[in-house]
Amino acid sequence: MINQITLTNFRNHISSRITIDNAKNIIITGLNGAGKTAVLEAVSLLCGERGLRGAEIQNLARFNGDGGFSVFATTDDESDVCVFLNPGDTNRHAKIDNENVALAELAKKLRIIWLTPKEDRIFMESASDRRAFFDRLAASFEPSHMGRIARLNKLMSERAGAIKNGADNNWLNAIDTQIAATSVSVAAGRIRYAGEINYFFSSGAVSVNGCVEKLVLEENAMYAEKKYLEYLQNNRELIGDKMVIDGVHKSDFGVFNKKLNLPAQITSTGQQKAILIDLILAHAKLVNIKTGVAPLILLDEAAAHLDNEARAKLFHDLNASNAQVWATGLDANIFRNIPNALFVTCVDGTINNIVMTEN
Question: If we measure between CA atoms, which residue out of 284, 343, 341 comes closest to residue 115?
């Protein structure tokens, strides 16, 4: 968990610091454009990814600044974690306890998951959006998962280039062997995650569907790797410079609402938001029990699409979770019943007021 965070030249924050002390829930309120979501975005960068908005790194620096920024946090084990962009640079960097580290190392330190208004429609959006969302969940449980996906993307690009340039079969066999092995690792990671999360996800069930995942479930990883390699070797053609192969890059995830006995995508907007929050709470429990790390849950516009009953349940469940919760909203009053909360007011990129509620 985070004890203190400092934003310097980040978005519209020139220099903002929040000292959390022992608060379990950090509630950030303010008008639109005040810098609420920017705080959550800064926190989300501390897991080594591109952040909850997926913005280009240069766009995170303050518009009238020098082109650089930093997000510096102290964790509850007294470690210092920092993500920063130097002026004129095009790549972000990371430090842990003032030592330069790879960005991927941050995921071992902080397990962070977020929900924004974009994810509210995750069941209605494209399969690629769902894959990205669930792969991020799987990665916060198993940090190496995203590294495998990045490696697979690179191999796929190399394969397309090799086919386009008429590479010989020995070269293509070598690439296909690596793609098959990496694809099976990705598929197996997704299957493991679905199995683990479903143990804690009492109101729903997660499923993953794809040709490689199906092969793994039919037999085992060795069988899946052999069969998928055969498939790749028999499908070496391009259409418009693009490969036309199936694989884990086309898999899809689904969520079934067990309370309504319906697939989540055909339920109402409010019911989709409720099951999504239940999923995130189950994920937080899974991460905490399996890794021993208390995760961070970031909720942008947390109460959107929820009626009073659903909102009361959300706040009760959040407080009962073993996670540090960061939530934003326009109106502080809707959060008034949350105990052990730190209320932070944002005004034009400035932390204007901090109030701690009782336990």
Answer: 284
In angstroms, the CA 298 to CA 52 distance is 9
Write the DSSP assignment of 44-69 as a string of letters.
HGGGTSS-TT---GGGGB-TTS-S-E
Name the burial class of residue 10, with classes exposed (0-12), middle (13-18) and buried (19+) by CB atoms within 10 angstroms of its CB.
Answer: buried
- What is the C-alpha separation between 88 and 292, in angstroms, rounded? 39
Print the domain residue range for 297. 1-111+293-359
- How many C-beta atoms surround the C-beta of residue 338 within 10 A? 20
* Statement to judge: residues 41 and 134 lie in one domain: no
Write out the H or E segment, with its range, that includes residue 82. strand 80-85
d(CA 317, CA 55): 31
pLDDT at 353: 61
Is the same domain home to 83 and 154? no
Question: What does residue 44 show for φ and ψ, rounded to 5 degrees?
Answer: -65, -25
Cα gap 189→80, rounded to integer Å: 30
Report pTM: 0.84
Contact (Cβ atoms closer than 8 angstroms) between residue 94 and residue 83: yes
Q: What is the pLDDT of residues 257-266, one digit of tens each?
A: 999 999 999 9
* pLDDT score for 359: 43
Number of domains composing the chain: 2
Which residue reads 């490969």 in tokens? 243
Pairing of strands 324-329, 25-29: parallel
Task: With H, G, I as helix, E, B as strand and everything else as coil, classify residue 16.
Answer: strand
